[in-house]
Design a protein that fits this description.
There is one protein chain. This protein is an alpha/beta fold. It has 15 helices and 14 strands. β1, α1 and β2 form a beta-alpha-beta unit. α1 packs across α15 and α7 crosses α10.
Length: 414
């Protein structure tokens, strides 16, 4: 197949979020199996207009603005797509989330390849995030208006139209499909399939040597308990709840340190709060960690926590930590519920409740046998249902089915 992927950002631009990792893993997996993959993303000041990495060709149209879904992105991304399609016709257009929504302006649909969406979330996630941040937004009326306008634009202009236009919709977890039904009705459901994110089990695995190296680097003794919270540092991700939980445990005599790995817009505010509360001896900030290095940090930890207060599709960080055979504690919401099963392969806490998180962490530290059992079961869960190879196999089957269906109807692709 000749596939064009459209994603506003990609892994090599340094963002390395869940969608960026998904694009890289699946794109490179498809390329290794002989398929041609071209990806279109926004321009980046440090990136060339065209870049080839591991068999995937990335285009960064210079007229676009890095990461922006407006400012020319809908028209410029599709203009680049049409130019490439005219030279070497594509069999399939693959949109990461709703980033290819510029395609809805093209008519008639039949003269273009079938469109497949990979949805890591929906506008329902944005609504919940907006609601959870409403109190903060009230202090910034301009930001409140922009956020509300963005929600309306995302719902009415972007998502509704592209869901109707797409030939196939791949959701990373059942909660994504449930949100589609809740907000858009059952119309798109017949086009939906669930393919969970997949993890490279040769990279994400138990590694005692890596554990020792990272702990020595940050001055963590063998007998010290280390909690890891890794990911983009935004308020929605709930890293501040992990800080509060470690503070509570310290007040109760439970000695544990917290490592927060990553960067983002909430980082400086979080650091200031840690200093204000006198927690600098308990909380370690690593800054940005490239995804190629994250297995070592998972291994260094005793427990991985993800106390997000937003709705997640299927977080890569949970999959990766579990693949490294770590017990995980995650917020009881969204795609986490499809992956983490209470007292079987991890623990769940109520969203926004740092006291609940502190209690679950303390219980694990006082129950080493249960902790080890949860860790073993976590890795088995990933091995049995969330491997990278299985994800690639399922995508290829679905993509080829969509392409065959278009050809069987006599639809043109050029």
């Amino acid at each position: 197949m000749n596939v064009c992927a459209i994603s506003r950002t990609n892994y090599w631009q340094g963002t390395q979020g869940g969608m960026d990792r998904h694009l890289r893993l699946l794109g490179e997996g498809l390329a290794e199996r002989g398929h041609r993959i071209v990806a279109i993303s926004t321009a980046h000041p440090d990136m060339p207009e065209i870049l080839e990495k591991n068999g995937v060709i990335y285009h960064h149209p210079p007229e676009t603005v890095f990461g922006s879904r407006r400012q020319g992105w809908p028209t410029k991304s599709i203009h680049r797509y049409r130019s490439l399609h005219g030279r070497t016709p594509f069999d399939l257009l693959w949109s990461q989330s709703f980033d290819a929504y510029g395609i809805v302006s093209l008519r008639p649909k039949e003269v273009f390849p079938p469109v497949l969406l990979t949805l890591h979330g929906s506008v329902a996630q944005e609504f919940r995030s907006f609601r959870s941040n409403l109190r903060r937004l009230l202090y910034a009326p301009g930001a409140l208006v922009r956020a509300a306008a963005g929600l309306l634009y995302s719902y009415a202009i972007v998502q509704r139209r592209l869901l109707a236009y797409a030939d196939r919709i791949i959701a990373v977890s059942p909660v994504v499909v449930e949100d589609i039904i809740r907000l858009f009705g059952r119309g798109p459901v017949s086009k939906c399939a669930i393919i969970p994110n997949g993890i490279d089990l040769t990279r994400f695995r138990p590694d005692p040597a890596a554990r020792k190296k990272v702990r020595e680097q940050y001055g963590i003794f063998d007998d010290q308990k280390l909690v890891l919270s890794l990911g983009r540092i935004t308020y929605d991700k709930g890293h501040h709840l992990a800080v509060k939980a470690v503070k509570m445990m310290g007040e109760r005599g439970v000695d544990a340190r917290l490592m927060i790995a990553g960067d983002g817009p909430f980082l400086n505010e979080l650091k200031a709060w840690v200093r204000e509360k006198g927690l600098t001896c308990r909380v370690i900030f690593t800054g940005h960690i490239d995804n190629d290095r994250t297995p070592s940090f998972y291994n260094a930890a005793d427990v991985f926590v993800m106390p997000t207060i937003t709705l997640e599709g299927l977080p890569f960080v949970l999959l990766e930590a579990m693949a490294c055979e770590k017990p995980v504690i995650a917020a009881r919401r969204g795609g986490n519920l499809a992956l983490v099963h209470e007292n079987e392969n991890g623990l769940l806490v109520e969203p926004g409740q740092s006291a609940d998180l502190a209690e679950k962490l303390a219980a694990l530290f006082h129950a080493p046998i249960q902790c080890a059992e949860l860790a073993r079961n976590a890795r088995e869960t990933i091995k049995n249902g969330y491997s990278l190879e299985v994800m690639i196999d399922r995508y290829i089957a679905d993509m080829e089915k969509v392409v065959r269906k278009r050809h069987s109807r006599g639809g043109k692709t050029n």
